[in-house]
Amino acid sequence: MRIVRFRAGGAPRVGVLDDDGVIATLRGSLAELLALSAEEIRDRCSDPGRSTPVPLEHAELLAPVDGQTEVWAAGVTYSKSRSARMAESENSASIYDRVYDADRPELFFKSAAWRVSGPGQPVSVRADSAVNVPEPELAALLNSAGEIVGYTICNDMSSRSIEGENPLYLPQAKIYLGGCAAGPWIRPAWEVPDPYALTMSLTITREDSAAWEGTGSTGGLRRRVPELASYLWREDEFPSGVLLSTGTSLVPDLPFSLRSGDSVRISISSVGELENPVVQGKSAVSASRRR
Predict the structure, then answer these.
(1) Cα of 215 vs its chain's centroid, Å
(2) From the CB of residue 196, how many other CB atoms can be counted at a distance below 10 Å?
(3) How confident is the model over 198-246, as pLDDT tens digits?
(4) N or C terminus: which one in the chain shows less Cβ crowding within 10 Å?
(5) Could you tell me which residues are beta bridge partners of residue 274?
(6) Could you give the count of Cα atoms lying within 13 Å of 181 in the half-sphere of its Cβ?
């Protein structure tokens, strides 16, 4: 079972994609769904309603986040992420070493729902950044109570040159139009028995050949999702839930950088595959969304 946001000749809707490739529509938005308990969400997905099914080939899959649901992300949760951050931050490398071993995790706001790119939609490299990379991550969908209800893929696009210049520039390195993609759907948590034993792969295609590729595993995730969620909920509320990206173990070595015209494909076993073309600058992203 997969929970999807889709468009089929009208406004976006929410549905369930079954093994036969048929979408049965659910009432309301994903944000409204996340206001329910995990048990209620499971019951709703098991009985999505009697609306006329839409064949998958007639549906455009959208980013699985909407309304006032926020996207947050965790940093330095894998040893590879720690070493990558230290390598790009010559003047402040020790900060990332301390974050990796600290009691409190690094958590940061990543995106509003409207800014997230869905499957096939472009992600962007900043026009004012010299080194830009994708960061493939397992993302957990949490309801308003902080319960884990599903998993998806997040591409946490990042400017390594901006963040490396000064760690206080993290928001500029991470939060911008075209800087986040998610999808292609939500795999329910009850169908993923061990989220810490999933294989991840990243392929960056340039001019019809692989410019960079690698594989990793969520087994290297130092901080579990409930721990990350507990810090996020300590002094905040999320009535429409949160999409929480858990960090990356796949970072191309310096000085590799994405280019406009590249394609980024991320796969996570038991979850799915997300592919996005790469453009440069917000004007290119804006133009693609007006089409």
Answers:
(1) 17
(2) 14
(3) 999 999 999 999 999 999 999 999 999 999 999 999 999 999 999 999 9
(4) C
(5) 266
(6) 30
